[in-house]
Design goal:
311 residues; D-Maltodextrin-Binding Protein, domain 2; 12 helices; five-stranded mixed β-sheet; alpha/beta; Arc Repressor Mutant, subunit A
C-alpha cells in the first residue's frame, strides 16, 4: 500500500469514527448514509489490515492499532487543513473570539491577571473562558475543545505540544504572630501543623491518603527523603483558601513562591524560605496538535510565554 492508492477522505472517516465510536453517529456527523459509513469502515480495515473498531457489550471499542493511529491522523488532518486554508494573517487588535483555557488555581492567580491586562491593550475583542482542572479531560484537549491547559503535570499524552512558562521555588506563608517565628528551623517546622495544597493534571480529584508520601507532591517528597514527615491538618486544592487559613490560624502553608508573593503586602502574614530544599516547580502550557498551526492560537501561545517571561 502506498499514498497513491490511499483515499485521503478515509482519514476523515477514521477520525470521526474513533471520536464517536458509533457508525450511525459518525455518518450523521459527516452527512453520509449509514451504509456509506459502514463501507468506509470496511475500506479502512482493508487499508490498515486491522479491525480498528470492535463491537463489545459496551459498544464499539478501538483496537490497539486504532489508538496508535488516532493522534497521528488528527495531526495529519490539521496539517492538511492548514495547507488548503487561505493564508490570512491574524490581527489581534481586530479579533473577536474567546479562548477557552484550563488553568490551575495557582496559574489563574499569578498568570491570568497580567495576561488579561496585556489583552486589554493588544486585543480588546478577545475574551477568556477560564476552566478548572476538574472541568476538563485529556480527551477534551486532544479534540481541540479546550484551547490550552496551564498547570503542573505529572504526566501528559505524548501527542500534545507543550512549553514551560516558568519555573518557581517554594515559600512558607504563616501568620505574623505564629509562635514558630521565635525559633524557625526544620525541627520547629515539622513540629507545627500544616496545610497541604495541590491539584496537578486534570480531571475530577480523588481523596488524599496522608500515608502515601509519593502522591502528596514536591514538598512531602523532599521531606520524606530525609526520613521525616510533616503533620498535615487540612488538605485543600485551592491556594487562596490555603493562604487564608494560614493567616487565620497557626497552620503553615508551603506554596509556590509566585503564589506566596501575592500576600507579601499583607501585614497579617509573613513569608519564609522552607527549611528543606524542594525541587523547582514547572508551570507548563499544553495544547492539541489540531491547534498547532492555527494563527490565532500561535499568537496567544506567544503572548502567554512573553507574559510569563516578564514576570
Amino acid at each position: 500500500m502506498n499514498l497513491e492508492r490511499a483515499d485521503l477522505n478515509l482519514l476523515v472517516y477514521l477520525d470521526v469514527l474513533l471520536r464517536e465510536r458509533n457508525v450511525t453517529r459518525a455518518a450523521s456527523h459527516l452527512g453520509l448514509s449509514q451504509p456509506a459509513m459502514s463501507n468506509g469502515l470496511k475500506r479502512l480495515r482493508e487499508l490498515f489490515g486491522d479491525p480498528l473498531l470492535v463491537r463489545t457489550r459496551e459498544g464499539m471499542m478501538p483496537t490497539e492499532r486504532a489508538m496508535e493511529l488516532q493522534p497521528m491522523v488528527r495531526e495529519a488532518l490539521a496539517a492538511i487543513d492548514q495547507v488548503i486554508q487561505p493564508n490570512r494573517d491574524f490581527n489581534p487588535i481586530d479579533a473577536r473570539r474567546t479562548f477557552r483555557i484550563m488553568a490551575s488555581d495557582y496559574a489563574e492567580s499569578t498568570l491570568i491577571p497580567p495576561l488579561l491586562k496585556q489583552l486589554r491593550v493588544s486585543a480588546p475583542g478577545i475574551s477568556l473562558d477560564i476552566m478548572t482542572p476538574s472541568d476538563v479531560s485529556f480527551v477534551d484537549v486532544e479534540q481541540g475543545k479546550v484551547d490550552m491547559v496551564i498547570n503542573r503535570f505529572d504526566s501528559m499524552p505524548q501527542s500534545f505540544h507543550q512549553a514551560t512558562i516558568w519555573s518557581d521555588t517554594f515559600s512558607c506563608v504563616m501568620r505574623a504572630d505564629n509562635p514558630i517565628l521565635q525559633d524557625y528551623n526544620l525541627e520547629s517546622y515539622l513540629a507545627s501543623q500544616h496545610i497541604w495544597v495541590s491539584k496537578t493534571g486534570m480531571g475530577v480529584g480523588v481523596g488524599v491518603n496522608p500515608e502515601d508520601v509519593q502522591r502528596l507532591g514536591w514538598v512531602d517528597e523532599a521531606i520524606g527523603r530525609q526520613g521525616r514527615k510533616r503533620d498535615i491538618s487540612v488538605f485543600t486544592r485551592h491556594y487562596q483558601v490555603a493562604m487564608l487559613l494560614a493567616e487565620q490560624s497557626d497552620l503553615i502553608v508551603t506554596v509556590p513562591t509566585r503564589m506566596a508573593q501575592l500576600a507579601s503586602s499583607n501585614p497579617r502574614v509573613v513569608l519564609r524560605e522552607p527549611p528543606v530544599k524542594i525541587p523547582l516547580l514547572e508551570l507548563k502550557m499544553a495544547w492539541s496538535p489540531l491547534l498547532q498551526q492555527s494563527a490565532p492560537h500561535r499568537w496567544m501561545r506567544r503572548l502567554i510565554l512573553d507574559v510569563g517571561r516578564q514576570l
